[in-house]
Amino acid sequence: MQSFPFTAIYAQDDFKLALILCMIEPGLGGVLALGDKGTGKTTTVRGLSHLMQRSLPDFPFVNLPIGATEDRVLGTVQLDTLINEKKIAIQAGLLAMANHGILYIDEVNLLNDYLMDILLDAAASGSYHLERDAVSRWFESKFCLVGTMNPEEGELRPQLLDRFGLSVTVHTPMNRTDRMQIVNRRLQFDTDIPAFLAQYETQEQALAERIVAAKEQVKQVTYDETIQVTIADTCIEHKVEGLRADILLLKAARAYAAFHQRKSVTTEDVHKVMPFVLSHRSKNYSSSQNPQQQREQQSPRDEKEGDSIRIKMN
């Protein structure tokens, strides 16, 4: 099944950017997208996976169903082979299958807490330990965890919410132009898929290469004491508990700088990623925005702003 092009997705700039940052810096720990059904969250994630496969052909996209069992998630020993052939054969679980790719969970708030804890631990550590029927095995699980949910259908526990590195809210567009543009693109895609894909071929390839280049350079991006002071003061101002937010803000800012081919982090980089890191960690953050965000919200949307990857991805 052909995915809708990532660069053709309109009016989802924040979600797209958060996903890109996690591709560049896996240590961010994934993205939680909150919002209404039918806003293109799944389409966006699948589009990114397809785009990444241009540069990384084996890049996996694994969908974890809400009803998945522990054995399906972690893996299991094939008892028939063990008994009949005296050989240890392990069927890999979804966590191992998602290694170096994306593990996607729709309606993540409906997943039972026990499995959620396992997933978040595996995502944070990059590996997990499987013990079944006297068999012990370590698996790599270096994936980007992407969860989507509608808050009206139930909340995540605060402890679990904090484990998602980034969070965005995906709104149903209430602008006439945005809605028309989204519908037109979808109908064009459904009517003639090859022709629609051809329109975005250059943008898709350029973005894939740009992400891979940033991924290779992110560890070399530097920061100074001014950046650390900005981050620390911001977290103190918003009464953020623990130091996870400080670390994630710095990682996200470095990823954003690398995406823009900069060798050092600027305060603008930090301000840009603040909503992704703090919106689900500070109750009062949503009521306070930095001047740059206020200017962006007050500016009218350009007809091509939905193609922000092509223009700037600011």
Automatic annotation (TrEMBL):
Alphabetical list of InterPro entries matching this protein: AAA+_ATPase, ATPase_dyneun-rel_AAA, ChlI/MoxR_AAA_lid, Mg-chelatase_DI-like, P-loop_NTPase
Molecular function terms from GO: ATP binding; ATP hydrolysis activity
Compositionally skewed regions (Basic and acidic residues) per UniProt: 298-314
Superkingdom of the source species: Bacteria
Residues annotated as domain AAA+ ATPase: 27-197
Database matches in Gene3D superfamilies: Magnesium chelatase subunit I, C-Terminal domain, P-loop containing nucleotide triphosphate hydrolases
Compositional bias annotation for Low complexity: 286-297
Pfam family, one: AAA_5
Residue numbers spanned by region Disordered: 281-314
Protein name from the UniProt record: AAA family ATPase
